[in-house]
């Protein structure tokens, strides 16, 4: 794990990244050798040159000029991406220390750069013993002479660590991380960060009559779990808790409504990315000691076509006593989330946010470039979430939540169906879930950005950890 630190002195042997408003400010930021300064000044004299990078005798130096007139959230993302590229270069040179200096007029860019560089250095190689030569070498990122504080620097440290933990969980295959393993990972995080963790086993889940979770689990040899995480500091500013709910389908075959394997089932270890997001967000919140009472609920199982797997046409009695006509076993995420949302009622939450890789419709609508959001939260709550989405560049596209969509979920033989038809699939999924709430609620569908099949800047390839930074920013700015 890369460590981010705040220092006051330069290390002349370090790899170097600087952000500035103009060339002269950038070159004055550090005592670079004269030959480098001459080269950089010459390069920046060329029209429209905003970034120059050079490998000087094994030392990587990169200067990036920013346009401070741009919106801050756009600049932050530009800086994250460039820092990620620099981190890759440093790792290729087998470097261990990267120093970041920000002499621009936007003070927060140093933190964004450190975040991008640290996340870009993430690797998931624990099952590849032959990868010794591929291991990244970057160990430390130093923020030098910046206007940011040591406390702010430590927060970024915590947040990048939590995001990488989420990536680890998402990248772990189901033969190494089943529902019980996911619950155990949360227990370990709770012990480390200081929040309570209660895990319900199958017997307790049956006792609680969690029909949705049990139905999805019926085709699996592995037992389901339901995890309740609670962080309640003495100085919490909220009287009613915020409740996070994460979809924990550790592997999704589609059940009897079987998925095709190529470009579909082969990446379905990521179907618990919502669970990873809420658990690791709570880990970061507790580590940073934010003064807010937050809970996280995770129903977990795999979805397989074996044993007595639930079948299209089945009528399932949910935990709240309502019935669902199950028309497609590949619409299983909403079945387990529904029970968790019902559990949340007992806490009388200020706001409940669920995070789930729920629908292909969400990905079809906006691709991997953002999160689909919708729900009954107040306008102020929605706006705060959207602002946090911009801050960390996990942008939320709010979809309509009109009453007409409820009509698509009606069943002739049950209280509702688990499928709404060919149109508006992301919305009808959200509408299904809203039936199990009686509190302010917002649904985040992360199907697009949760897992990438090709490298995407500092987000990397595979599990991205999307949602962790968004939720942390939201609670940090309450």
Structure description:
The protein has 478 residues and is of the alpha/beta class. It folds into two domains: 3-148, Leucine Aminopeptidase, subunit E, domain 1 (3-Layer(aba) Sandwich), CATH 3.40.220; 160-476, 3-Layer(aba) Sandwich (Aminopeptidase). It has helices at 23-28, 34-44, 72-92, 109-120, 150-171, 179-193, 202-207, 211-217, 273-287, 333-344, 360-366, 379-392, 404-407, 425-434, 468-476; strands at residues 3-7, 15-20, 51-56, 59-65, 97-102, 140-144, 196-200, 225-231, 242-246, 248-252, 294-303, 314-317, 323-326, 351-356, 371-375, 396-398, 416-417, 441-445, 451-452, 462-463. Strands 7, 8, 9, 10, 11, 14, 15, 16 and 18 form a nine-stranded mixed sheet that branches. It has a six-stranded mixed sheet with strand order 1-6-5-2-4-3, sandwiched between helices. It has a three-stranded mixed sheet with strand order 12-13-17, covered by helices on one side. The longest helix has 22 residues, at 150-171. It is elongated, with a radius of gyration of 23 Å.
List strands and helices in order, with pairings.
Layout: E1 3-7, E2 15-20, H1 23-28, H2 34-44, E3 51-56, E4 59-65, H3 72-92, E5 97-102, H4 109-120, E6 140-144, H5 150-171, H6 179-193, E7 196-200, H7 202-207, H8 211-217, E8 225-231, E9 242-246, E10 248-252, H9 273-287, E11 294-303, E12 314-317, E13 323-326, H10 333-344, E14 351-356, H11 360-366, E15 371-375, H12 379-392, E16 396-398, H13 404-407, E17 416-417, H14 425-434, E18 441-445, E19 451-452, E20 462-463, H15 468-476
Parallel strand pairs: 1-6, 2-4, 2-5, 5-6, 9-11, 9-14, 10-11, 13-17, 14-18, 15-16
Antiparallel strand pairs: 3-4, 7-8, 8-11, 12-13, 15-18, 19-20
Helix pairs in contact: 3-4, 4-5, 5-9, 6-9, 8-10, 9-15, 10-14, 12-15
